[in-house]
Amino acid sequence: MAIGAAGTAMVGREAELERLTAFATAPGGRSLVLRGESGVGKSALLDLAAHAAAAAGRRVVRATGVEAEAGLPYAGLHQLLYPLRDDVAGLDPAARTVFGSVFGPAGDAGAPSVLTLGIAVLNLLGRAADRRPLLLVVDDGQWLDDASARVCGFVGRRLAPSPVRLLIATRADVASRFDAAALPELRVPPLGPADAGRLLERHHPGLSTPMRRRILAEAEGNPLALLELPAHFGADSRDGRDGAGPASSGSGGSGSSGSSGSSGSLGGLDHPGDDLFGRPAGPLPRRLHQLYGTRIARLGVAVRAELLMGALDGAGTRPGQAAVPGPRYRMRDADEAVAAGLLDTDPATGEFTFRHPLVRASVVQMATPDQRRAAHRTLAHLHRHHLERYATHLAAATVDPDEDVARILERAAGSATRRGSSLAAVTWLTRAAELSQTRAERSRRLADAAFVAGYAGRLGQAHRLLPDDPSPAAEAPAAVLAAASQALYRDGDVRTSRRRVVAALHALRDSGMTEPDDVFTRLETLLLSISLFAGDRDAWSEVHELFAGFGSLVGDRSRIFCDTWSDVVRHGAGRAEPVQEAAAALAGLAPWDVTRLAAAAHHLDLLALYRPHLQRVVDRELETGAAFSGAVMLRLILIDQIASGEWDEAERTGQRALDAALDQGLELFAHLARGFLALLSALRGRTARARVLQAEVDAWARPRGLGYLIQLADAAALMAALSDGDYEAAYQYATGITPPGSFRPYTHQAPRTLLDLVEAARHTGRADEARRHALAARDADLPELSPRLALLTYGALAMTAEDETEAAEMFALAESHPEAPRFPFELARVRLAHGISVRRTEGRTAAGPLLAAAAESFERLGAEGWAERARAELRASGTTGRATSTNPAALTWQERLIADLAASGLTNKEIGEQMHLSSRTVSSHLYRIFPKLGITTRSALRDVLNRVDSDAATPPCDTPRRARQ
């Protein structure tokens, strides 16, 4: 027997206890998941490990997952970190802001991503452990809310350098985030026959042989069952006491440590969970009901009421509860339940605690519906100042429709959305609809729930949320919104979905609507999305005509989306300013509003203004269930990374976007990701891969009439042909997108392929067509629409100029444009053309710097086909060898420090946090560092820095390196 903290004994757990003791007392940081069925003794093992750690000098911080809080974002993390709250004040302002946004009242600020919060938690733990090593103990990990579990998994994988250890116990039969957290595991199996017999004899000596055999067979090695089944079968202990009393509770046995334990099956008995509003999910199995039900039934009415209040509020199920802020129900006058073996008393706080979560489940199951509702009413009053808890209990206490309660649930849903928990928001909105007093309010709230579910990637759930109604006309617009969204994003159906949405909008307008409601506005936006992906002139013409007829029903933002998403050449003038202004106030917007504005910014080449916000929140969206918003954000980040020349990062983002879309069955988004990856591969000269992806996108999109994807696939094929030097094929693809001398209406790739068509035409002897196309860009005022289009237009005019003066002027306008460095690939193409022009007019010496700069940029980007072309021109100008050279001496001390940190594997965001810089500033520094070092990829940093240091007697930036060390 293993002797534990209070002289208690565990039977048959010597191996587990030995490993846990070593884990809890060894130096350094590590994590471990303890997994086993309910009643197997996980909680007792946690107690013994915590005692061993404390005896070895570690500070022990404990938390327990609670079913009642499983729907409250960050409730578990709040509980775990609250004892360390004094250390938050010592963190930097950014980290304090992170904790404030998560744990502030009702989630006033948007929740950060798992990465951001995880790093902040690691910093907090490191600061707390500086004084004394830490052991974090989490029991019932399967009941941690989703957001907390993800952060714990992130932290658990990164504890190696710290004096912090994390020990988590979970049920083996309940799925949890820790199942896929990639953390080391220790399984706790049932006891073997010999150990089971020893435990039974220890606590229930003198049983008859038939009874003993029956109990051993029924218990199947589960320690809790071995302790409790004798009372269930009416067995008396040797001294004649009732087996149901505390003497038979097995306080020294495995699984009996009272403060908390895992709920679950007992020899195959399933534990019923409650939903968010405390409604039982199923009947308690007969044997479990009899095990604890008889004892509960013998209690007085007042004691049973106390137990019910505690059970519904999650009280008494975790150690150190006094450390949890806010009002919590504390059971009182419950000594009778202690005597019955249902409760224990926490020695640290003196509070009553459930002896096992299965007791809590029995208490809830045995209460009548009226008793549960009365308890929830009392608890709602207790939590009236905590919106989400208040809403939870108030909803469970309410039977009849009640508008006041429904409005509170709507507010709670808004809070959940801001805290990054879209799925909790769907639950609250659905319950709000159930409690609505009018059909209109019920329909509106269900439509809201369906909308949020859709943006969480739950398109099927969104459709199911909409009810069947005897008067379907009143429900039609919301039903169309859900059905058409599913048809578009899952199946790529733009034809049927457009007809349905247009009909629904007409029906709403004809109903006498004078002000647009949420459903009308969402249908408008969905129609714009359908038309964008259709890329069809007739479809967009219908939208413009429809919006003109709707008048004031169409909001300003919808008109901005319509103009920028449809045809930026014809409708984009004047739209850049409001899109730029909106970028300054994104924090207060819902994720779907942010993505729509960012899409408008993409068409105006202003996406760089939105990317920092998208990168801050995309992890939160994906990791808290908002898969749709997350997938859209990833695609927008990918587009801007391609434009800004961050092609290694773009490859990773594109694959992540593809994986996210496939996980949710969003086929449209999956093919969009493939399309942009095809374009990226073509840019990099990986033309075989580009053509495979392009063909896959084209084969899916063309039969469905998805013009946006067809154009994207053609643009990828066009760039692949240019990279290979196949200018005739490039010309055919370019003119398939738009004819020379014009920009085909409602064709988003028409202005974007301006320079491609001009170059392909020039190289195939079609100089007149190239010139006509460049002049068409000038006449369409493309330079006024976006900085990228200005660069392309001036470059095209320079390449096709009829005299040297005009060419020089246009090249100067292109290369000196203040935004030109944001588009390094296009700038390098213009410089290459400029260098070729100068070599022909001014000689090889004058052309050298321009051609070298172009070659350097192409090499850094990884555009191999273009780099080779630039190197060939350099050789023709009389320059040999590489255009770049390693020049570490040119690095400033700050650049050298950034280079060292990047070489160590840190991300731009992590570097920025260490140096108190924004990730965008770090990216700009790396943009300048790479050419100085003569490299093109982040992975080459370590080698070149090591080579430089080994070649030099004194490192050129020795001071900052020593400072970092």
Automatic annotation (TrEMBL):
InterPro entries: AAA_16, P-loop_NTPase, Sig_transdc_resp-reg_C-effctor, Tscrpt_reg_LuxR_C, WH-like_DNA-bd_sf
Domain HTH luxR-type: 884-949
Region Disordered, annotated ranges: 235-282
CDD domains, A to Z: LuxR_C_like (cd06170)
Entries under SMART domains matching the protein: HTH_LUXR
Signal sequence annotation: none
Keyword annotations: ATP-binding, Nucleotide-binding
Protein name: LuxR family transcriptional regulator
